[in-house]
Specification:
270 residues; single chain; Four Helix Bundle (Hemerythrin (Met), subunit A); 0% strand; 12 helices; mainly alpha; 2 domains
């Protein structure tokens, strides 16, 4: 935490509270509080003595607590808050841009268990994407690059996940459940919507509001699709024999293993 002397020295050099706070790594309103002992949003209730306290600007201090008017001003304020808010930074930095866990460990063979594990990996990536602030939440250049990397990893995961489902899961659903055709058609429609959103997202600059909107849409569509598939998996476990599900699980893993290897966006391999 900066000291009062540090803030006041920067003010003496002619810096305002926004720039002083930026240099010291705290929001402007917090720099004002350190220097004066007063909250920035209390300008209308100050006593005469408080108004003449060292470090008090002549203009209203409310702007130090609130974002400035206008989209560009608000975006700059959010970006600066994101940089200086330690809790926000720690929440974003706890994620590493790669899927969690092994995709197909040797002790997991059954179809619904194999696919559920893969869903969990994609869901984890979507959580990473949501945790890292985008441009509309004041994300820094490094944040935007990380979001773009996570999107590339989601695309990489789905490049083999969806073909494996098309080849092995949905034929089993069509042949093994009395409403299988309807369920498979609905699932494929959902997949196409999500892939269309992902394709649009990959073609959009991460420093745009459209990227943030598409990222939210992708997360919503993928969450709905995973919930739908979970319900289908429950019916498969009730209607498809264990040995058939084991065989299909092995087929899915075989499809993944035979798929072309796609390099990690930052040069890493799992």
């Amino acid at each position: 935490m900066p000291s009062r002397g540090q803030v006041q020295r920067l003010l003496a050099y002619g810096l305002d509270y926004e720039e002083a706070g930026h240099r010291l790594g705290v929001p402007a309103g917090q720099a004002f509080l350190i220097a004066t002992g007063l909250p920035a949003d209390g300008g209308d209730t100050l006593t005469t003595a408080e108004r003449h306290r060292a470090g008090m600007p002549q203009e209203s201090t409310q702007r130090l607590a609130d974002p400035p008017a206008g989209k560009d001003g608000t975006r700059r304020w959010l970006r600066r808050r994101a940089v200086t808010d330690r809790g926000m930074r720690q929440a974003a930095e706890q994620w590493s841009a790669r899927p969690k866990g092994e995709r197909a460990p040797g002790d997991v063979h059954e179809l619904t268990a194999v696919l559920t594990r893969d869903h969990d990996r994609v869901t984890g990536l979507l959580k990473q994407l949501k945790a890292i602030p985008g441009v509309t939440k004041g994300g820094t250049g490094a944040d935007l690059a990380r979001r773009e990397s996570v999107v590339a990893l989601i695309a990489q995961a789905l490049e083999s996940h969806e073909p494996a489902e098309q080849a092995h899961l949905w034929p089993a659903v069509r042949g093994g459940l009395d409403t299988g055709d309807r369920l498979a058609d609905q699932a494929v429609d959902q997949e196409n919507e999500a892939i269309g959103t992902l394709t649009a997202l990959r073609g959009t600059s991460p420093d745009s509001e459209e990227f943030d909107e598409l990222a939210e849409r992708l997360e919503s569509r993928m969450r709905r699709h995973v919930a739908f598939e979970d319900a289908v998996f429950a019916r498969l476990r009730e209607n498809l024999p264990q040995e058939d599900r084991e065989r299909l699980g092995a087929d899915v893993v075989g499809t993944w293993q035979s798929a072309p290897t796609v390099p990690h966006p930052h040069g890493r391999q799992d």
